[in-house]
Amino acid sequence: QVQLVESGGGSVQPGGSLRLSCAASGFIFSRYWMYWVRQAPGKGLEWVSAISRGGAISQYSDSVKGRFTISRDNLKNTLYLQMNSLNSEDTAVYYCAKDLRSDDRSNAYDYLGQGTQVTVSS
After folding, report:
1. 90 phi/psi in degrees, rounded to 5
2. Distance (Å, rounded) from C-alpha 83 to C-alpha 90?
3. Contact 94, 48 (CB under 8 A)
4. Residues whose CB is less than 8 angstroms from the CB of residue 105 and which lie 6 or more positions away in sequence, other chains included
5. Largest alpha-carbon pair distance within the chain?
């Protein structure tokens, strides 16, 4: 079955960096667009970033553009999110998500991981 397991979260001071990882299994990772989404306390899910199947195309929300970098290693079936210049508004549970559709982008997710907590505080 599909499994997405995030790791790398933690507590960091404003201006700090973290690198999240998402280990994928149970599907052909290289055939799917992948996403990072987050949920801040008391708020709904927010799309953060997307990456194409081969990694050539990456997109970011305006709130993280220029600070976050999404990447993937299709040989290791792993998705990454490098987060720099973190601020308090980045505090959230971060989830990796798999696109609903293979070989194309639907912008819909059918699986999310369990999430990893990122807390930015001085």
Report:
1. -85, -5
2. 9
3. yes
4. 33, 50, 52, 99
5. 43
Burial 36-45 (b: 16+ CB within 10 A, else e): bbbeeeeeee
Radius of gyration of the chain (CA): 13
Q: pLDDT tens for residues 15-73? A: 999 999 999 999 999 999 999 999 999 999 999 999 999 999 999 999 999 999 999 99
Phi, psi (rounded to 5 degrees) for 31:
-95, 0
pLDDT digit string (tens) for 65-117?
999 999 999 999 999 999 999 999 999 999 999 999 998 899 899 899 999 99
Residue with tokens 């970011």: 60
Contacts of 1 (CB under 8 A, 6+ apart): 26
Residue (of 89, 50, 56) closest to 70 by Cα position: 50
Residue among 25, 65, 73 nearest 49 (CA): 65
